[in-house]
Structure formats: C-alpha cells, structure tokens
Predict the structure of Oxidoreductase, zinc-binding dehydrogenase family protein.
Amino acid sequence: MKAVWFETFGNANDVLIYGDQPTPTPAPGEVLVKLAYAGVNPSDVKKRAGAFPNLLDAGLVIPNSDGAGKIVAAGEGVAESRVGETVFVYQGQYGRQLGTTAEYIAINSMRAPKLPDHIDPAIGACIGIPIMTAHRCVFADGDVKDLTLLITGGAGRVGYYAIQWAKNAGAKVIATASNDTDRDLCLTLGADAVVNHRDTDWGTQVLEQTYGQKVDRVVDVEFGANLSEVLKCIRIGGTIATYSSTQVAAPQLPFRDMMFMDLTVRMVIVYAMPETAKTQAVADTFNALDKGWMRHRIAHRVPMNQPALAHELIEQGGFGGCVVIKIDESNGDQ
C-alpha cells in the first residue's frame, strides 16, 4: 500500500517519506479500513517533531490519528456485516505505530464507528480530535442547559465545534475571537456575544456582556496565557476545561486565589478520555451528523504524495478549519 511514515524526528520536509509499506491484516477484534482521508492535528505534528522521544523505539511511525474511509475486511470476532460500512477512525496512532496516513489501517473495531451515509469522509476525518475534544470540554461536568459558557478561541478547530455543542444543548455562550471575521463566524455559529482576547482586560469585557453575571464554565484553548483574565469572569465553583497551553507551556497557578474560588481545572485530551465519554461523544456526534445541524470547515485538502505540506500548514497556522490529507486520489485542492 502507499503510505507516509517517518523513521527519525525532525522537520516535516526532512523526515516524512512517501512510498510503499505492507498492507496490514486485521487481527481478532479489528477491521481493515481503506482510508479516504486522514486528519492532521497539532498532536500529530508534535509527535513527528520529537515530543515523545521513545515513539520510534518500536520502529517507523505512520503518522496521524484521525481518518475516515470504508471497512473492507473484518477480523475474527467482528461481524461480517460491518464490511462495506463508511466509518471514521480515531486513535489511529495512539499507543501504536501505524496511523492513518496510508491507504489502509487495521484497527480495533470500536475505533472505527459508522458514519451516516450522506457524510463526506473528509468531515469524518475531523471527528476524532476536534469534535470529540469539544464534546468532552463542554459536557464532561454535566448538562449545560441554561448555564453560561465562555469559549476562548471560538473560531479555532475545537472552539468552532464547542460553540455548536453548547448552543445545541441550551447554553448561553460568550466566545473570544481576535478579529472581525472570526467574531462574525462565532456569532453565526450561535455565540450570544464575542469579545476580543487580544484586548487588555478582556475578562472584564466578558462580564459586561453578561451584565455582571460570572460564567459557569470555560472551554479554554490557551490555559496559561488566558488564566488571569478567566479568573476575573468565572464564578465560585466554576470549571475550566482546557485542551491546550501552547503559549505558556508551564503555567504558574495562583493557587490560593483559585482554591478560595473552589475552581475545578479539567485537562482534556481525547486519548485519555474514559471509554464511557468516548462512547457518548461518538453517539452524540453520529446523531448531530445524521440530523444535519452541525457545521464544518475543511480548510485544506492536501494530496498524500506531498507529505510535508499538511504538517507545515498546521505549524504555520493563520487559518480556520481542519487540514485533511486526501488518501484515495493523488491530488488535493489545498
């Protein structure tokens, strides 16, 4: 099969190889998926760059954990009726070497849930990390109906879906965005108000939008950089669900202040979510896709034979939407 892999860490253009690898065979409990798209996320890029030094100890790595395609074979113990299903794949390269940037992947059947028949597989490749992370951040601490949620970076890959999950569940949403285009997008998605997180004292601006009522929960894209402003506008007993702290990688916490606010800080990553949470996220996502209320953004569709481009796009940033690698054809539309 055609695949992309790396055998050393480094820059994408230096270490990613496009060529031929053996086609896997599904083991008991696994399905063989012929992939149409792979999704690329920051965690995939960091792994390739060397964030996990032991990753290559077991051999080469086919990168990327998200994807979508069609089941073409079932291993022992998996119902033959699954063959032919269009599915999305998540955790393709978590705790294992061979991810989704390949024509085929053999993976545990539970990591290949069915997609509604009318859904573009490119959208399926955006579920595993962006949509499921957003679901966990919004719902990990219970029902959000009638609560007020602050979603920072509302136009980002996760924030985009978090706004939709929260609004569909009956929450009031205050989002942050850094420019007029992103502000308008957040409002279109359902945000009740938007403040600019590049402004000084934006936490006070959140309170102006809520008429002084502090928010119940925060879904946060930059925990370390945003914490001081978040503490201005979150209520006593509130929860911060955060999935990233890139700008301030090792935040210092004002422990006493946070303790007296009885705050909960929840760190979210799909790989470590409880299986019950994954199952619920998958079920709710299928329902949302089936009913058609969830919106999506594919920013770039990159051909597999240009293996560095997708990773470089994630590193460069500056755009909204997901980056997917087109597996089933030699060209993409970028």
